[in-house]
Amino acid sequence: MNIHEYQAKQLLAKHGAPISDGYPAFTADEAVEAAKKLPGPVYVVKSQIHAGGRGKGKFEGLGADAAGGVRVVKSVDEVKSNAEEMLGRVLVTHQTGPEGKQVNRLYIEDGADIAKEYYLSLLVDRASGMPAFVVSTEGGMDIEEVAASTPEKIHTITVDPATGYQPHHGRAVAAALDLSGDTAKKAAKLGKTLYEAFLATDAALLEVNPLVETGDGDLLVLDAKMGFDGNALYRHPDIAELQDESEEAEAELEAGKYDLAYVKLDGNIGCMVNGAGLAMATMDIIKLNGAEPANFLDVGGGATKEKVTAAFKIILSDPAVEGILVNIFGGIMRCDIIADGIVAAAKEVSLSVPLVVRLEGTNVEKGKEILETSGLPIVSADSLGDAAKKIVAEVKKA
């Protein structure tokens, strides 16, 4: 689950991270009231969407030369006029794709005296299995270009969770940022603060871009992005409440109601599988047979008839889906339960695309019998490879 910049800053401030004063606003009038609480005379009006590149983004309906989704202004009147222009408009950035995201809220922040911009993030390093800092002296809106063209400027510093953040980690962070003196000490301290916040919130990503050095040599978290492990949100009801459902895909929200793991992809073959590893293998073999998966969908090991029906509806809500491949290995999950769900769902939604089902495991024969006697045009497969070939062929034939 992702949250907005202002929410991330509020969380980080509770852990002691230095941030500028600022207030969220949902209307132009609220933006004016927020600006009046700030010392000024410089204010920053920031679009709040779950995507990076806001500063270079473009609003639909405005000219190519119009300002982006982050604007520096010098009066309360300018705060109001910019808020009126931004709210309710679709912002397109390199991370949103061409469809963009509608701006429904803003963050009105006090201006900062920026001497230098840096990049600092925390994530789980899959190679080492440990939390890691990713640090660069080249912070700001072009960090993706830095990573692509000059990767030597990106430094990774892993932290063993068994021993935690140590003084040598702080020195390594400061050195990677090319800092010295008191500012280096502040960087080491900030690293500890962010590391502790990362662990305490079960974050999957904590990104500060830019981290800025002010003219006085202080460090300031000028922008912040946080994402969290959804499996740990039960431990953080306060964070779960921060979810902005308007930023989430409708199908993924619906999947969450049934405890289904669903991610929309760009292909045309809908997939329903039990088990994340089997789901990944299913998507791979679809690609090997010349098609593309339309989604990742794991119904889990304890799926009910109702969950399977819901999964079918979610898959078919994607207009790009031209066929469905169901791949079930019944261990905890019984094949007859899956078969009942498939038949019920196919009848309820008036299935109009090819459907190939591969069942294996507990009660497999009973499951196949249910499918065969359903009266529905369901194509049965004997193996995963056979299933992938059949669904690709059926889609081409349809």
- Judged by helices, strands and strand pairing, the structural class is alpha+beta
Going by CATH, the homologous superfamily of the largest domain would be Succinyl-CoA synthetase domains
Into which percent range does the helicity of residues fall?
25-40%
Write down the domain tally.
3
Uncertain spans, ≥5 residues at pLDDT below 50?
A: none
Catalytic activity: succinate + ATP + CoA = succinyl-CoA + ADP + phosphate; (S)-malate + ATP + CoA = (S)-malyl-CoA + ADP + phosphate; GTP + succinate + CoA = succinyl-CoA + GDP + phosphate
EC number: 6.2.1.5
InterPro entries: ATP-grasp, ATP-grasp_succ-CoA_synth-type, ATP_grasp_subdomain_1, Succ-CoA_synthase_bsu_CS, SUCC_ACL_C, Succ_CoA_ligase-like_bsu, Succinyl-CoA_synth-like
Pathway: Carbohydrate metabolism; tricarboxylic acid cycle; succinate from succinyl-CoA (ligase route): step 1/1; One-carbon metabolism; formaldehyde assimilation via serine pathway
